[in-house]
Design a protein that fits this description.
14 strands; alpha/beta; 42% helix; 12 helices; binds nicotinamide-adenine-dinucleotide
Length: 338
């Protein structure tokens, strides 16, 4: 298949590009590089041994998206492009609604006019909001708290309405839990600009000596060790999940589905720190500070539907997630020190 990856130069998109290319698909990346670096393209070429086609553009540029869909005879779109920082989305909600929601509408209009009707969308577990029960299955009520989470839910609703209006669409919204880790080559991984928002890249920067210590927000939650519990999933497992989703939409007559991609296992902040220390042979100094508003005690997936429907389940362990994160960090972080 010829597959367009919006946001394909970013963290999850670049790992998915590797899996798709290794499976024999033609991959075309479409990215405005607002949160990624062009150097990832060379690294992808090194890993796959293939030339990477990349269009430098914004998904809100409808005519450029249309031209790309037509020129490359695109069969399916994997839509990763989006802004993703929860805190920032409360400070600048318009940027999030414009980029994520308006950007997706523009992309969908371009797809519709070119009759490209297969779409895999990067949604998020944040659509669930505060858990009413655990593990969280797809029937759990949705009530996102941040503007970021609301953009994901609004997009899902738009996709559902679109599929109801025309049953020839094949749309999959994948609700990711907490992607971590990196490709085994150590050539690509999560490379946030500035101070990381997510736990694993923060731990990596502490391990590498760029940041002094990790701040753990709250150790008085109702969890086994008092720190927050999340469902960390290896980014390569997530990438495989996209391959399974593509396969599924190609062989079933469902116009719209949503699905969790997680491991089903909760891991606390302290557990993750201990595992990382072991895998990296580095001490991770930390301090406990007050809970952050909006943080929840525990959140992990019920991933059964992905297994029942697509035969997909995560394979990689937390130790592999920590080891691969450290391998990537120790080859890529030198520039931050310079
Ligand atoms: N990483 C996570 O923890 C996580 C969890 C759940 C869902 N998601 C979602 O998965 C998707 C990918 O996440 P990621 O971690 O790879 O993020 P990322 O920031 O690394 O990648 C997103 C890519 O999209 C590009 N982009 C952003 N806006 C664009 C636009 N208007 N036009 C073209 N390109 C644009 C960025 O330059 C970047 O390369 C996002 O939609 C995100 O919301 C991520």
């Amino acid at each position: 298949m010829n597959i367009l990856l919006t946001g394909g130069a970013g963290y999850i998109g670049s790992h998915t590009a590797v899996v798709l290319m290794q499976e024999g698909h033609e991959v075309i990346i479409f990215d405005n590089f607002s949160n990624s670096k062009r150097s990832v393209l060379n690294r992808l070429e090194k890993i796959t041994g293939k030339l990477i086609v990349c269009i430098d553009g914004d998904i809100r540029n409808r005519s450029l998206v249309k031209q790309t869909l037509q020129y490359y005879k695109i069969d399916a779109v994997l839509h990763f492009a989006g802004l993703k920082a929860v805190g920032e989305s409360s400070e600048d909600p318009l940027a999030y609604y414009d980029n994520n929601v308006a950007g997706t509408i523009s992309l969908l209009m371009a797809m519709k006019s070119c009759s490209v009707k297969i779409l895999i969308f990067s949604s998020s577990a944040t659509v669930y909001g505060v858990p009413h029960y655990l593990p969280i299955d797809e029937k759990h009520p949705t009530d996102p708290e941040s503007p970021y989470g609301k953009t994901k839910l609004q997009i899902e609703q738009i996709l559902s309405d679109l599929a109801k209006s025309d049953s020839s669409w094949r749309i999959f919204a994948l609700r990711y839990f907490n992607p971590v880790g990196a490709h085994e080559s150590g050539l690509i991984g999560e490379d946030p600009n500035g101070t990381p928002n997510n736990l694993m890249p923060y731990i990596s920067q502490v391990a590498y000596g760029i940041l002094d210590k990790l701040k753990i927000y709250g150790n008085d939650y109702d969890t086994p060790d008092g720190t927050g519990v999340r469902d960390y999933i290896h980014v390569m497992d997530l990438a495989e999940g996209h391959l399974a989703a593509l396969d599924y939409v190609g062989n079933h007559n469902e116009a719209f589905s949503v699905m969790n991609l997680g491991t089903g296992n909760g891991c606390s902040v302290l557990e993750l720190v201990n595992l990382y220390e072991y895998e990296a042979s580095k001490k991770i100094p930390y301090e406990i500070s007050a809970r952050r508003t909006g943080d929840i005690a525990a959140c992990y997936a019920n991933p059964e539907m992905a297994f029942l429907k697509m035969g997909w389940k995560s394979k990689k362990t937390l130790r592999e997630m920590c080891f691969d994160s450290w391998r990537w960090a120790s080859t890529s972080l030198q520039k931050h020190k310079d």
